[in-house]
Amino acid sequence: MNTCQHVRDQLMKMLDDGETTPPDSLRVHLRTCKVCSVWWEQMGAVDEVFCRAGEAMPAAPDSLLSRVMSALDSEKKPSRSSGGAVLGLRYWTVAAATVLLVAGISALLWTSYYKGTAVHVLADVSPMPSVTSLASLDGLVVVPQPVVSARQDFTWLTRAVVSNTESALRALVPDEPALPHVSPTETPQGQVES
Amino acid sequence: MDDRDAFGKLVLKYQDTVFGTAWRILGNREDAEDAAQDTFLRAWRSLSRFDPDRPFRPWILRIAVNTALKIRSRRRDHARINELRSIERIPDIPARSPAQETGCREVQEMLERMVDQLPPESATLFQLRYGEELSLDEIARILGRRPGTLAVALHRIRERFRRILFGSDEEVKS
Predict the structure, then answer these.
(1) Would you say the ipTM is above 0.85?
(2) C-beta contacts of B164-170 below 8 A and 24+ residues apart
(3) What is the least distance, in Å, from the CA of B13 to any CA of chain A?
(4) Each residue of A83-127: pLDDT tens digit?
(5) DSSP state of A75
(6) CA A23 to chain CA centroid, nearest Å
(7) Which of B23, B132, B159 sits opposite A58 (nearest CB)?
(8) Tell me, what DSSP letter sits at residue A190?
(9) Are B21 and B128 in contact (CB under 8 A)?
């Protein structure tokens, strides 16, 4: 930064602080530098004009006080009644929040219970195990731990139960004509396990 | 003396400060009156948040500035401001400076036009510095800015006015 710029910055700071008489260190430069000297004179004039413009602000109208006070009177003062209203509002808010909370908890509990039921467990499980494989474990009625989507129907399960019931009946009454056969190997997707 | 009466005394004491600041930012008497009234009402409502250990003037000025800036941002009718400004002339500048050579009236009118054209932030800074004679530190606290930033802005305003009133440094050299 050159000397002139440095001096001008210092002079500006002086004006910021409301000072108009430069210290000797700056005055030396102003004496020798005509450009800065004229600049300072002009800047002083601007500052003076600003000060006068600032002082020349119009006074507040006489009516302002009465306007403010009458507006103030029409304001709702923070009295007991309004406090009660605020409090009443709070009560309603708390009541509404409580209802929502209870409803939320109920929904959560119901969902948990629902989660414990088959339909829900079924909803997010893995591929459907083959009824055949399950049945082969004990050769009896197999109610597979069904793993089906809630969107899927239970036709396959019905068929498996019917089929196993049929087998059991057949064992008990071997001479009876066979019941219509429904393959237990059909999956809900209609695929047949090999 | 109840709260209302005490507040009335505060209004009486600070009404010129609040009104003057609003007038500078808004540029006309009508809006400045509305802003001043709003300022005091807002102050009344917020009195419970005022820290009595701190000075009241910067607090009320902060509300006044915010209120006036909000009103100004709502309306852009500068033609109306200029029209009303022409009625409320500032007093003649005594011929004590080089500005007198260009003619006081001319300088005054030029200044008015220039101040009219100041953006709201600069008009606010101008008013707080020259109208309220606050230091940059005090203004910084009111406006929530850094003093250094305000100093730069103030230097630019002064320099801009100087160049318009007196010409550039090149002209000084010649």
Answers:
(1) no
(2) B164/B110, B164/B114, B165/A42, B165/A45, B165/A46, B165/A49, B165/B99, B165/B102, B165/B107, B165/B110, B166/A42, B166/A45, B166/B98, B169/A35, B169/A39
(3) 10
(4) 444 444 556 677 788 888 888 877 777 665 555 443 443 333 334
(5) S
(6) 60
(7) B23
(8) S
(9) yes
Candidate from B18, B162, B173 with C-beta closest to A43: B162
pLDDT band at B108 (very low <50, low <70, confident <90, very high): low
All residues of chain B having their beta carbon less than 8 Å from the beta carbon of residue A55 are 130-131
For tokens 């005594």, what's the residue?
B94
pLDDT at A135 over 70: no
pLDDT category of residue A18 using cuts at 50, 70 and 90: confident
**A83-97, B17-31, B123-137: lowest mean pLDDT where?**
A83-97
Q: Residue A179 to residues A168, A174, A182: CA-CA distances in angstroms?
A: 11, 11, 9
Token readout for B147 is 């003093």
State the residue for tokens 């809900």: A188
**Structural contact between residues B107 and B99, judged by C-beta atoms closer than 8 angstroms:** yes
d(C-alpha A131, C-alpha A146), whole Å? 9
The residue that leads in pLDDT, B162 or B172, is B162
Quote the pTM value: 0.57
3-state secondary structure of A186: strand
Q: Which residues of B102-123 are buried (b: 16+ CB within 10 A; e: fewer)?
A: eebeebbebbbeebeebeeebb
How does pLDDT run across A62-94, given as a tens digit for each residue?
999 999 999 988 876 544 444 444 444 556 677
Residues 56-75 of A with CB under 8 A from B: 56-61, 63-65, 67-69, 71-73, 75
